[in-house]
Amino acid sequence: MRRLWLLFAQTVTVCLGILFIVATLRPDWLRSSPQLATPVSPVPAVDTSRGAEVSYANAVAVATPAVVNVYTSKHINVPVVPLPSDPELKRYFRDMPGFIRRKEATSLGSGVVVRSDGYILTNYHVIEAADAIDVGLSDGRQAPAELVGADPESDLAVLKINLPKLSAIAFNGDHQVRIGDVVLAIGNPFGVGQTTTMGIVSALGRNRLGINIYENFIQTDAAINPGNSGGALIDTTGRLVGINTAIYSETGGSLGIGFAIPAQAAHIIMDQIIETGTVTRGWLGVEPQDITPDLAQAFGLDSEAGVIIASVLRNGPAWRAGLRVGDIVLKINGQEVYDSIGFLNQIAPLAPREEVSLLFMRDGKKREATVEVGSRPRIRKP
């Protein structure tokens, strides 16, 4: 009996050793064995015929016909020989024939057809000081463009061309843009021709960039390069999300930080330009200043919300309402005022002659004033 038990134990030990060696060196033998294989659920086949492969071709096909190339030219005076540094001598040589010749400088950008009757939205800096503007469509047609009006403070301009069968882009309407949304930038970078790049919305409400007076940019990492200015930033259905305006770059090329004017803001400005030729913004005649921690401590404030009036235009709307330098504006029409940029953006949509209520602090006491809004003076660029 003992001999049989030893034989059984040796046999089991040898079998376990063989199983360990096979499992270590050739595990595929075990998987192929019907007795030892573990049942595996079948993997369903991927149906590529129903959009499993992501493509934005339909969105591009919808928006591309509305994106145009904008070519501008202007004449500049170029000295034949270097002029002396002395202002009087320089003026003397400028008046002499043969020392100055006229040269035509050209530049390029992009634009978006926003109405089928020929209205085009682009950046002001694309057509600034241009003597002639020409537009090239994606179907090969070209036409001279007329400047309807411009708004340098938001860097937008409206052009008009006379061509039949124009395809206008659709605005995104009430659809809210969110951080992380996929967007496509369409334009004419470096003049190579119409180009589409893809990215996401990186941030919203970007300001204090020193680009425009009124800034509320969409930031995107979709590649935007020189020549894209004025082009379309669209969503994945082909609707206009923004007007590509600027990039942050130390090299002149895209570094993944581009900025676009939101389509809703551009639509409001465009309508005003088409109807009146200009943009009217509310104005109080004050220069606001942000409240720093040091200023908040000096004025005994609990928070840094609000703005300090750094200067007041004499006989301006705020002056007539009794506001003075050093007053701290806390609310406008019941809405909190957080900083100077937000304060200007709260005033801008107000209509001239509209009355607004300001809650401000003076000498540690809260006071109220009613101000009749004026019209912001237009900035004349040299």
Automatic annotation (TrEMBL):
Superkingdom: Bacteria
Keyword S-adenosyl-L-methionine: no
Domain PDZ: 273-337
InterPro entries with a match to the protein in the record: Chloro_Bact_Ser_Proteases, PDZ, PDZ_sf, Peptidase_S1_PA, Peptidase_S1C
GO biological process: proteolysis
UniProt keyword terms in alphabetical order: Hydrolase, Protease
One MF annotation (Gene Ontology) recorded for this entry: serine-type endopeptidase activity
Pfam families for this protein: PDZ_2, Trypsin_2
Protein name, as recorded: 2-alkenal reductase
